[in-house]
Amino acid sequence: MTANPVVAVLHAETVPDTTLLAPVAEHAEIRYTDSDGLATALEGADVLFVYDFLTDALPHAWHAAESLRWVHAAAAGVDPIMFPALRDSDVIVTNSRGVFDQPIAEYVLAQILSFAKDLPESLRLQREHTWRHRESERIAGRTALVVGTGPIGRAIARLLTAVGMKVRGSGRRARDDDPDFGIVTATEDLPEELSGADFVVVAAPLTEQTRGMFDTALFRAMKPSARFVNIGRGDLVRTDNLVEALRSGEIAGAALDVVDTEPLPQEHPLWDIPNVMITPHNSGDFRGWRDALVDVFVDNFQRWRSGGELENVVDKRLGYVPST
């Protein structure tokens, strides 16, 4: 490490709490910048902290990153910042894996319970001052298939198992002794696995291999009574195919925290389809999450400064941190 490293911090409208970055400022020059000034900030910079986790500015400023050695993303998914020149370079990429695992798992459980207990209809009847007795579903004993067996998928599996659901995983490699899922089936067996799931939860990373993976064929493989929950990335799903599956009754409902165009356009048909619940990409955003992201970077910076091993190093070929 150089004696006086330069750290560029890319932010959007929200700037990270500078007091939390004080341990970095003690040992480095910090350059705060928005996307317009990124190229200038990268000149001579050793480290880039991508606090604006939805940015598309990095490829356009990459020509100025001649000294860059490490990029840290304030997100679990690194797809917004991954592009060929970065992937082919020697620059290390790390992410903020671990911050959102449990909050997202809680969100998934909440959505499953909302479907099972039909909470939207209860609220509608309450607004009408209507007392109407109804029965609801149990979730204990129901089957959840979690597509994506990384840390977020594992947190989901543990929480759903704790409330009595039968949980299976779908990942790159099949195994029958997984500590969180028990049984994990390979991606190529996904259509068969979908046919037995009551709830399908998508927690896979977005890569070139997973982009658009949920299409007409996979929706048709699901049970008509199944519900679809996506907390991964909107581009994992072919949205037109999802709309058709919901309208035709091929699946019974969807809870979408991510969509392939964010914000979702006001005229988009998903807004008005019954049994669809939409949230604005906030499933993991607990109070204090932004500060937690800074803390992860500060901890990793201290490791980097002391010559230690960085945590959450992304395999740039895979597009995510490999499981150990």
Automatic annotation (TrEMBL):
CDD domains noted in UniProt: 2-Hacid_dh_1
UniProt cross-references to Pfam families, sorted A to Z: 2-Hacid_dh (PF00389), 2-Hacid_dh_C (PF02826)
Keyword NAD: yes
Keyword presence, Oxidoreductase: yes
Positions of the D-isomer specific 2-hydroxyacid dehydrogenase catalytic domain: 29-314
InterPro entries xrefs: D-isomer_2_OHA_DH_cat_dom, D-isomer_DH_NAD-bd, NAD(P)-bd_dom_sf
Record keywords: NAD, Oxidoreductase
The D-isomer specific 2-hydroxyacid dehydrogenase NAD-binding domain, residue ranges: 109-282
Family: Belongs to the D-isomer specific 2-hydroxyacid dehydrogenase family.
PANTHER family, sorted: 2-HACID_DH_C DOMAIN-CONTAINING PROTEIN, D-ISOMER SPECIFIC 2-HYDROXYACID DEHYDROGENASE NAD-BINDING DOMAIN-CONTAINING PROTEIN
Protein name: D-2-hydroxyacid dehydrogenase
